[in-house]
Amino acid sequence: MRLTAFTDVSLRLVMRLAVAGEGELLTTRTAAAMLAVPYTHMAKAVARLAEMGLVETRRGRGGGLLLTEAGRRSSVGAIVREIEGSGDLAGCEDDPPCPLRAACRLRGALAQAREAFYASLDEVTVESLVSPPARQVLVVLREDGSPA
Amino acid sequence: MRLTAFTDVSLRLVMRLAVAGEGELLTTRTAAAMLAVPYTHMAKAVARLAEMGLVETRRGRGGGLLLTEAGRRSSVGAIVREIEGSGDLAGCEDDPPCPLRAACRLRGALAQAREAFYASLDEVTVESLVSPPARQVLVVLREDGSPA
């Protein structure tokens, strides 16, 4: 069981932005390098998080990425729920689709279990993720992804 | 968020075997065709489920696959827990690994959320998955994966 890479990248970014110092505006490129993810993945995550109102993108010289107040207060559950969406947890509609899909009881059971997964993450806020010792690791990240 | 294909195939097989009629012994090849999965995937799932004591494989003429009593009584949670294992839900140790992994609080939160996911499936038994109307769909599956 894995989260999508998209959710993974999004959460890494939110965590890093949550510890940004006053006036520290990371660019998408810098954040990608720091968090060891491809630039194109990071750019998509930035666009999605901005759409969700969690990240603000300031353009121009001295521009960069900022976690919004909503982003800071958000629960991890809310972010994961929104980004992962409600697709099937198994290959019900893959090609070829599962022959059981018309009357499968597992499908509903899996959806309910995912709800329990999200509910558990609803208790976790972005702020709580970046308290020490995580904060120190996040703050000192360099652009090559190594600690300073 | 997706289960691995391996778990998906394993659960399809367990469900189909749970409705097998008296003396009906499916072969791995027949089960693969019925459930629309590649033969090699099905063969691996059979081996794993046999190892777990959930499926019995009878060799020789008239041989085939049987759900054991333990398989019938098993919860979906127990099966998924065993097959999915306890690897990370995000790319913590991928190549390149996540630079946050040393002090990441998300990792623990995700592991706890997965435990809630499994616990939800602990309430679901294999038997309950194959009660009507799922039973009818399962029973009439043909080898091309279509209903009869």
From TrEMBL, chains A, B:
PROSITE patterns according to UniProt: HTH_RRF2_2
Q: What InterPro entries does the record point to?
A: Tscrpt_reg_Rrf2, WH-like_DNA-bd_sf, WH_DNA-bd_sf
* Swiss-Prot/TrEMBL keywords: DNA-binding
The domain of life for this entry's organism is: Bacteria
Q: Which cofactor does it need?
A: [2Fe-2S] cluster
Leader sequence range is none
Quote the Pfam families the UniProt record gives: Rrf2 (PF02082)
Protein name as annotated: Rrf2 family transcriptional regulator
